[in-house]
Structure prediction request, 268 residues.
Amino acid sequence: MQPTPLACRDVGNGPVVLLVHGFPFHGGQWDAVVPMLARHARVIVPDLRGFGESTFSENTFGERGEGVTHSMDAHADDLAATLEGLGVREAVALVGFSMGGYASFSFWRRHRERVRALALCNTRAIADTPEVAAGRATMAARVLREGATPVVESMLPRLLAPDTLATRPDVVRSVRALMDVAPPLGIAASLRGMAARVDSTPLLGHIDVPTLVVVGEHDAISSPTEMRGIAAAIPRSRTVALARCGHMSTHESPEQLARALEEWMSKS
Ligand code: MLT
Prediction:
C-alpha cells in the first residue's frame, strides 16, 4: 500500500505535536484538546486512512473494500508521509489514542528518528487473541453489509465509564456522532488491520524517549492494570490516571488530558 499524506488540521506554532485518533473516529476526536495544546505548539491532527477526509478514492480499497486491510504499519507510514508533505523535519511529540497507540508503536518501529516524545492514551501493547481477531473479521463483514451501526452499538457501552453513560448524555451523544459518520470501508479495513497487529510488548523496554501513559480509571477496553503494566515496562515513563473516566479520555476528561499533555510536552 502506497504511503499517502493524510487530510489533517495544522494549527498553532512551536514544537510539533501529532495527535493520532482511535477507532472508528477521525481527527475531530481531539477537538476539545487542540485549543489548549495549540497555545504553545504546532498541533497536527490527521484523519487516518479510511476515516474523516482521508477516504481517498474508492480504488484505495480495491474491489468494494472486501479483503482490504489498513495495517497499523500502513497507518504509520501515512503519518510519516503526512509529516513529510507538511515539510516537518524535526522529531515530533507523538500522541496515540487506542488504535492510534497501536499505530504509534508501528511508527516507533519504522520511523523512530521522527519521535521526540511519546504519549500513549488508553491503548494496549498486546496483540489480539485469536478470538478477538475472529470477532473483528466477523464485524468487518457485517459493517460492509449493514453500515456503521453494529460497530457503534457494540462499542458505545464499552467506550464510556458507567457514570458517564448514566449522567452525561451530551458526552454520549458526541461520541456516538463521531462514530456514526465513520465510512464502512474504512471501519472494515482498520478492523482487519487491528486484528493483524503484532504484539508490541517486547518493544516497551526499548522506548527511550519521555513517555506519558494516560489511564482511564474505568477503561473497559485498555484496563488500568494493563496500562500500568505498559508504563512499568517503559523506562522514562510517567503515568496520569484520570478519575471518573472510561476509555474516551478525549471526551470524558478533555481538560485533564490536555493539562497532562501540556505538562509532558513542556518537559520533553
Ligand atoms: C479504539 O478506541 O481505537 C478501539 O477501541 C481500539 C480497539 O478496538 O482495540
Q: What stands out?
A: The chain has a mean pLDDT of 95.
